[in-house]
């Protein structure tokens, strides 16, 4: 594969930074964005400012835990429309570079700048300056010969960092880092590596042979770990993306106990998914129901249909019927509906029944 130069642009504490930018009185204060902004309710942290992270608060943490760690933090609801608007402005800046771009989320992107005449570091500085000057936000940028190394580099000197990992320094730069910086080393793999081999760092992992890793984790995952520990990554930039699935789920402030209330909520979520399918121009052949009980035990039930559907009522009936395959022996804290095995619509759907959507997290008393 020809030599590449990849940039990973990662906005710093994106949601919280936007809130601090538009509310100057919040600057320098711990800010936590998540749910509807009430830490007494169920919900998770979407983003925490760096001032909040100093208290051990991080994304995906329950809001109640975040509140215990920092009761004086400012808790704010997610303002998705505002964040998407700023994200579009960030991507407009990135597109003007002429680089090939792979969107990696609302707040990050990979850029292949191999064919761009401007030196990568100079281009990265210019991107950072434009984001700071036009949006009054900061971004951390990593530069490397592949996506893996660019992603690792962007996280090394946050916030407002610019870090380069060159090919001749990969081993030295990666060795002291925790193994969890690597793709494919999540909590379970990290625990298994620690228990079986005493692995803490990337250097520890790189010291293991391919045979050891394949024996412990199987041929595919073992080989993946062997290569990523050495900074090897041949994954291409994906500039054209199609969704693999569309889903909606709801966490309830009060656990559901009545099956009829669950069926009503499943139908509501299914209609929201149908609206999303319609908007994106897809139909779905596989419908999945997700049920999470109060004990946090989660089960899923799926059905693959003979042909894809997009009709809201058919999708709702299919999802509701899946509840009959779940043993409801305890209260339910979350329900979700997912549509997968997507295919583009060949022609506009017939008029669908009006979706009875409910966007809030709280249910009417009659559902409980």
Descriptive overview:
The radius of gyration is 23 Å and the shape is globular. The strands form three sheets. Strands 5-6-1-7-8 form a five-stranded mixed sheet. Mean pLDDT is 91; it is low at 347-368. Strand 10 (282-293) and strand 11 form a beta hairpin. The protein contains 13 helices and twelve strands. The chain is an alpha+beta fold and 368 residues long.
Keywords:
368 residues; alpha+beta; DNA polymerase, domain 1; Dna Ligase, domain 1; 5-stranded mixed β-sheet; 4-stranded antiparallel β-sheet; 12 strands
Any idea what the CATH superfamily of the domain at 245-350 is called?
DNA polymerase, Y-family, little finger domain
Tally the helices: 13
Q: At CATH's second level, what is the architecture of the domain at 245-350?
A: 2-Layer Sandwich
Helix content: 25-40%
Into which percentage range does the β-strand content fall?
Answer: 15-25%
Q: Based on the structure, what is the oligomeric state of the protein chains?
A: single chain
Which spans have pLDDT < 50 for at least 5 consecutive residues?
Answer: 347-368
How many β-strands, per DSSP? 12
The class by helix and strand makeup works out as alpha+beta
Shape: globular
* CATH topology description of the domain at 245-350: Dna Ligase, domain 1
Span between termini: 58 Å
The average pLDDT score comes to 91
Radius of gyration: 23 Å
- List the helices and strands in order: EHEEHHEHEEHEHEHHHHHEHEEHE
Q: Could you give a short account of the major beta sheet?
A: 5 strands, mixed
Report the top-level CATH class of the domain at 245-350: Alpha Beta
Spatially, the strands of the biggest sheet line up as: 5-6-1-7-8
């Amino acid at each position: 594969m020809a030599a590449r130069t990849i940039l990973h642009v990662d906005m710093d504490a994106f949601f919280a930074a936007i809130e601090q930018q538009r509310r100057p009185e919040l600057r320098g204060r711990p800010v936590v964005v998540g749910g509807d902004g009430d830490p007494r309710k169920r919900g998770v942290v979407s983003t925490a400012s760096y001032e909040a992270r100093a208290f051990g608060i991080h994304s995906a943490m329950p809001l109640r835990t975040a509140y215990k760690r920092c009761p004086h933090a400012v808790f704010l609801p997610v303002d998705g429309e505002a964040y998407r608007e700023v994200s579009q402005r960030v991507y407009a800046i990135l597109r003007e570079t002429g680089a090939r771009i792979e969107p990696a989320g609302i707040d990050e992107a990979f850029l292949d700048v191999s064919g761009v005449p401007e030196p990568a570091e100079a281009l990265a500085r210019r991107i950072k300056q434009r984001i700071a000057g036009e949006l009054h936000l900061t971004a951390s940028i990593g530069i490397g010969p592949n996506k893996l190394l660019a992603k690792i580099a962007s996280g090394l000197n946050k916030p407002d960092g610019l870090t380069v990992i060159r090919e001749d320094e990969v081993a030295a730069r990666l060795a002291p880092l925790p193994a969890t910086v690597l793709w494919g080393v999540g909590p379970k793999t990290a625990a298994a590596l620690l228990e079986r081999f005493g692995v803490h760092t990337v250097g520890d992992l790189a010291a293991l042979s391919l045979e050891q890793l394949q024996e412990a984790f199987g041929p595919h995952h073992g080989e993946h770990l062997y290569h990523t520990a050495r900074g090897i990554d041949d994954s291409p930039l994906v500039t054209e993306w199609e969704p693999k699935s569309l889903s909606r789920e709801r966490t309830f402030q009060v656990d559901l106990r009545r099956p009829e209330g669950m069926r009503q909520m499943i139908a509501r979520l299914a209609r929201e998914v149908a609206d999303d399918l319609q908007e994106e121009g897809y139909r779905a052949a596989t419908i999945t129901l997700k049920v999470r009980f109060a004990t946090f035990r989660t089960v899923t039930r799926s059905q693959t249909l003979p042909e894809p559907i997009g009709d809201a009522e058919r999708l709702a009936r299919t999802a509701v019927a899946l509840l009959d395959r779940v043993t409801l022996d305890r209260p339910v804290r979350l329900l979700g509906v997912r549509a997968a095995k997507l295919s583009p619509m060949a022609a506009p759907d017939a008029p669908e029944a009006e979706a009875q959507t409910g966007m809030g997290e709280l249910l009417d008393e009659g559902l409980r």
